[in-house]
Hints:
Distance between the termini: 4 Å
Strand order of the largest sheet: 16-17-18-24-20-21
Radius of gyration: 25 Å
Number of strands: 31
Largest sheet: 6 strands, antiparallel
Helix content: 25-40%
Low-confidence stretches: 1-37, 726-733
Shape: globular
Amino acid sequence: MQRRSAAFLVILAHCGSSNEPGSDSDAAIHDAPVDAVQCQSGPSATVLPMPQAGENYLWLCSDYGAGSCPEVANVFPDRHALDISGTTYTDSIPDTLDLATWAAEYYHGTLRLMIPTDFIQTLKTIPVPPGSYAAGWYVLYHSILTPEGARQTCSGVDGPCVNAEYVPQWAITLQSLRRAREMIGNEVAEDDATREWLSVRGVFGYDALMSTPPDASRPGDANNTFSYTMMLLADLYREYPGNAGVTTLMNEYIRFKSTTVGPDPTYAYWLNFLASQYSIGFDGRGGYYNDNFVRLHHQANNGVPLSDWAELTGDATATGLGHKTAAYLLGYQSGVFWANPNTQPANAGRFTADPPVEFVGHTLSYATALDAMLSDARMRTSTNAADPVAAQEVMFVKNAYEFAKRRGNAGLLGNFGVSSYLGEMLRLGIKLEHFRTVYPDVIPFSQYYEDVERWTRNQAAEDRIDATVATYIPDTPDPGGDPRFDHIGSRAVGTFLSNATHVRAIPFNTFEDDNDGLWLMRGLYDVWKNTVEITMTGGKTVGWVNLLLNRAAPSMDVYSDIPYRGRVVVAMHRNSGIDQLAVRIPSWRGGDVTITEDTGSGPSPIAQGQRWSLKDGYVTIDGIRPGAAYAVQFPMISQRLTVTQLYGPQDWWYEGDYAGQGFPELNGQFGATFLGDVMVQADGQDAGVPRYQRLDLAALIGAGGVTEVDPPRRSVSRFVRTCALPSMTESGL
């Protein structure tokens, strides 16, 4: 999520413009007619009920006690209120990594795993409104026994199953679905679109219930519940610029946050207790979480949407709360969250590996805090590139990001322990690169994009439940049609697993998604969105290809042959308006770069120094011609590298960056073969669900080096969005 400063503006893809379909030829002349797109109006306006004297709840519903929320139903009157403006066309692409394909499978699978709220009401564990669908607490794909000997179940029944007793991350699951929908457009199953629509309507009724007695013992107890909905609303606002209904809803959440915030004049916080005060464990099977992890995570989840909303709309209340939340995360009690617990006698010497140590604790909590700081920094630099607080925040996050990569050598594959943390690391890498022109002496110009692409091709790909992984999940029908147990295997395809610790195989006792996969999908959206970026630089409109992945964009289509061969084709649309094209080149390439241009009569080489140059990890091509295709090629290499896995092959995954008491780390290192920076084969194999089964790619490596081949191709449906906010079309938030 990013936005350029005034010197690095983003160009709008105009509403109603047509975008031409792609081609599988280098001579792609994109001139096929496509009907103009009408901008979708999105959600409708509404009037919320007036607050009652002496009662400080979320005033979303006149009938909030029942959770029916007629006012919210007015905002989303039918499923088409969530349609997205854009153009759909058929294209032939290399059968290589395609994030839009992942998004389509994720969208379908996640909605299939949702549970009807009418059924959840029968469990009598959590209040939910009727007539909706909610994401459950976790999804088990096997019987689970934790290291402490406890069974993890769904109401006492072993997996495979969906636990529907609680719905703690309902709204942020919906945000991940909106992001997937932006990648795939409106060609979705009618039943899936209806489920999403009913779920969006229902989540506001749930929030209303959670903000009122007896379900909220005091204001702010459901803090994360409400902040997740604010994240959803910020995305809806981007999708439907200036929408009155979305703005009305968000204004009510901001009012509620502003009246329930703590009394400190310097810092903003809503829940400010230590984990030990509420007997929440922070030193066990998943690592050392730190006694501060709960309050850190809760405030961070407020800071991200508050700062993002402030940047989107200029809202003064959100601006002030965003600044104060970031100040709390960085400086509360003289930076207590970032102090190394080694200073405590009981912990002496525990947290010293991979120095300098920048943080010790629950990785997702710390990563979301870093995320919130960058949102605040981006908001600040959008109006003042010289803001000193923003500079401090960016430097702080950069150091923490580098430590996270260094810790256990996780930066090689992205095996950061748990997929939610991986998703946040993807976001941090992308957001840090936003500042590469603001702080060029601090942020490397292309390195973090290379990190992000490497983690996407490796750990993120291995966290997916594809058709092969799904064969390890029983797909049995439930005799009574209970949605918690019925056909789990087939419903899960396209979603993600929690375990990002184990490299060679997933132990069956960790075969689940503990509400981590949605965080990974959020990060993958940022990867997809920033694959192509349009800026105005030095008086020229520049198209940046930051990640070498397949991507359809308003100005160009990107076709990536990696890792079958080192070749990327960028086919310009006739109406792209691009003057200069910059394509990132991997640092690991095996030799010189060559470039050809095809305007329709066949590819012609362009000599280096003639119209293109290589600097800061990008080839920059001048004199871009509308409708032409540019092929950028470089040699692939093979590598032998050492992979690190901090926990044993049958241990739990880890969520703390250092081991918990009684669950020591192991120096689990082994060799692996890489094609470029894609791991294709590990030395040895562990028991469980196999990972990195890439024998077709490994076969390209022989004694004489790498044999580069044309990848197989496939036909896909492409969606290119229009009518977004000016700063939100091809890069930005």
